[in-house]
Amino acid sequence: MNAEAIIAKLRLQANPKNVAGMARFGINPKNTLGVPIPVLRKTARETGKQPAFSKDTAGRHNLAQELWNSGIHEVKILASMVDDPSEVSEKQMDAWVRDFDSWDVCDQVCMNLFDKTPFAFEKAKKWTRNEEEFIRRAGFALMACLAWHDKTSPDARFLEFFPLIKKYSTDERNFVKKAVNWALRQIAKSRPKLLGKAIDLAKEIEKIDSKSAKWIAHDALRELSAYNKT
């Protein structure tokens, strides 16, 4: 199927009630169909198995770009499932991140695609310094996804994230502070040798005169202190 056919198929499964429910969880309802993630994953698998795309990374990449350009919420998430990280460029990553308008699109793209590219570590650091809410969130979401999925990079690469986690713990915006918290907790849980350092970092953040920083620290310490005893 081409992009047009895939989009037409997803439109048939649109569910306004799901859209309303998603909005209650802070998901942007604009250009949203209400198609669940499992349906998108099934569609991505079926697309990848097609003879035209099974071994054609460039073809999947071009299809992903067409899907992304639709501007439809779920179709953009599907694009991140279809694309091949070996075909993704830094230019594409910077272009897509500027289109983020909802936390779930941000997180899905980071975990499905961006964290598998060779540019992931540098983009994570770069994007956290950006003032745009969802671009900064993407930086911290990417840190969390790297900690979750990358089993080969040395701990030192994740330690480079700690100063940024501390610096931007004062960002009061909900979608940012939750991503900062996620990055801190995920690094600690995925990297056993960094657990103690992450707890120390949370204690440093706790001392900052900021509601956001204190929330991040308290939430992280509650989970990590219990995790440290297991």
UniProtKB/TrEMBL annotation:
Pfam families: DNA_alkylation (PF08713). It comes from the Bacteria. This is DNA alkylation repair protein. It comes from Candidatus Curtissbacteria bacterium RIFOXYA1_FULL_41_14.
